[in-house]
Design brief:
It is a single chain. By secondary structure, the protein is α/β, with parallel strands linked by helices. 32% of the residues lie in helices and 23% in strands. The strands form five sheets. An eight-stranded mixed beta sheet has the order 4-3-5-6-7-8-9-13, sandwiched between helices. Strands 10-11-12-14 form a four-stranded antiparallel beta sheet. A four-stranded mixed beta sheet has the order 19-18-17-20. Strand 3, helix 6 and strand 4 form a beta-alpha-beta unit. The structure holds zinc ion. The site of zinc ion has 7 residues, from loops.
């Protein structure tokens, strides 16, 4: 059986890969300038002509694209905001963003886009060990959210047997694990943790199901050390991270079997890490904002899209042999989710890692921010207390101490009864800011 899905692409010399990216970039810039009213106006304002982009390094001449701009363009130019480069006869699917932080942004896939998405998703699934004949239980949400369909199409292409469950009913998911002997499971990490909790309550362990691989996306989690350990041990699987975002597309990066960070599909997506303040490119390995350029997208291609997600990027060849760049640790956090408390900055995933390694508390948590009577900020980490035998004050001190060493600041700790915090089939909301 072949080891790589597309060896020619996945093992390509970086020099050749960057040449390919350069020529695709040139082509994309020309195409958006000719066909997208949004980009023609934007490049004209910035004094950029397609001829100015001769190779990959010219990317920094191009302005960033922000979500707010696209929203405004949709109001001004209607429908896709003058973004689309495809003829209406080639339009196939509409995938707007969820609109949790404002009016949804309309994203469009053509037939060719669907082919590409299917192909690189299949490639990433193969890198996680998915093989023809595997039973795939897809617990990603179907419909407008992009990940469900991407995995669905890719499972067909790989020759797998698919159970298109969607993000519904934890009980039914467990029944399906047992009844059909599912090999591979896709879900958000929060949903997988919820299912795991239900399994434990029913007395179902990893030996009672057949799962071998778990691929978790939609939020950070699989690369949070203590979460990964719990999912792997509880479900008897290898757990991998997979990443996408509505405006750019689904499942465009994923961990390989080496679990050494998200591998980007760099032949389709040009990935940069830039300084959040200045927008200047950062050195390899430095943490900054993830900026992505579509290299092959036809429907609604984006150039230098400012994702607001934080990550690092490493171009060193992975131990699996693949040359495509990686982001170890996955998405470190969304710029919007960063908690600033008493001068310290941290992401919910750092709290998650501490809480899930603390076995006297449950796996769910909430970070609550508020003002006290004097107007000072208070940050409280709310967790469910499982161990009732030890003194609350002692456990509180212990958890506070662990949080302090992870976050460089000491939040308050509040214990609540098991089952109090909300479980989810989709993405968890971890921060409540009442300030
Ligand atoms: Zn690898």
């Amino acid at each position: 059986m072949k080891e790589f899905y597309h060896p020619k692409i996945e093992l390509m010399d970086r020099e050749d890969l960057e040449k390919l990216q350069g020529s695709r970039l040139k082509d994309r810039v020309k195409r958006v300038y000719e066909r997208s009213k949004f980009y023609r106006d934007k490049f004209d304002r910035a004094g950029i002509k397609p001829e100015d982009i001769k190779s990959l390094k010219d990317i920094t001449k191009l302005p960033f694209t922000h979500k707010d701009e696209i929203r405004k363009a949709q109001e001004k130019y209607g429908k896709f905001g003058g973004l689309t480069c495809a003829d209406p006869k080639d339009w196939r699917e509409l995938h707007p963003s969820s609109g949790t932080t404002g009016r949804p942004v309309g994203t469009l896939w053509t037939e060719r886009d669907i082919e590409n998405i299917t192909d690189f998703t299949a490639r990433l699934m193969w890198a996680q060990g998915v093989r023809p004949g595997d039973v795939i239980q897809n617990g990603f949400s179907y419909g407008l959210w992009v990940a469900g369909l991407a995995v669905h199409y890719a499972a067909h292409k790989l020759g797998c047997f698919l159970i298109p469950m969607g993000a519904t009913s934890s009980d039914r998911q467990i029944e399906m694990f047992q009844q059909w002997g599912s090999d591979v499971f896709f879900a958000t990490p929060s949903f997988a943790m919820y299912i795991l909790e239900k399994m434990k309550a029913k007395g179902i362990g990893p030996d009672d199901i057949h799962l071998r691989i778990g691929s978790f996306g939609g939020e950070a989690g699989a690369e949070v050390e203590s979460t990964r350990r719990k999912l792997e041990e509880g479900l008897g699987i290898d757990a991998y991270d997979i990443y996408g975002l509505a405006e750019i597309g689904p499942t465009m990066a994923a961990e390989c079997e080496a679990k050494a960070g998200l591998h980007w599909t760099e032949d389709h997506h040009l990935v940069e890490i830039v300084d959040p303040e200045t927008g200047e490119p950062l050195k390899e390995g430095e943490e900054g904002v993830l900026v992505i350029t579509h290299l092959t997208r036809e429907g609604t291609p984006l150039i230098r899209y400012w994702t607001n997600d934080k990550a690092i990027l490493i171009k060193e060849k992975c131990e699996c042999g693949r040359t495509h760049a990686r982001s170890p640790g996955g998405i470190l956090g969304r710029a919007d989710d960063m908690v600033i408390y008493k001068g310290a900055k941290f992401y919910p995933s750092q709290v998650e890692n501490v809480v899930r390694a603390f076995d006297k508390a449950g796996d769910e948590f909430l970070i609550r921010l508020e003002k006290d009577a004097r107007g000072l900020d208070i940050c409280t980490v709310v967790v469910e207390l499982l161990d009732k035998s030890a003194k609350r004050e002692i456990l509180e001190q212990e958890l506070k101490g662990r949080l302090k060493s992870a976050l460089n600041v000491t939040p308050e700790v509040e214990f609540v009864e098991p089952g109090t915090l909300k479980r989810t089939e989709f993405k968890a909301k971890r921060v409540i800011d009442n300030r």
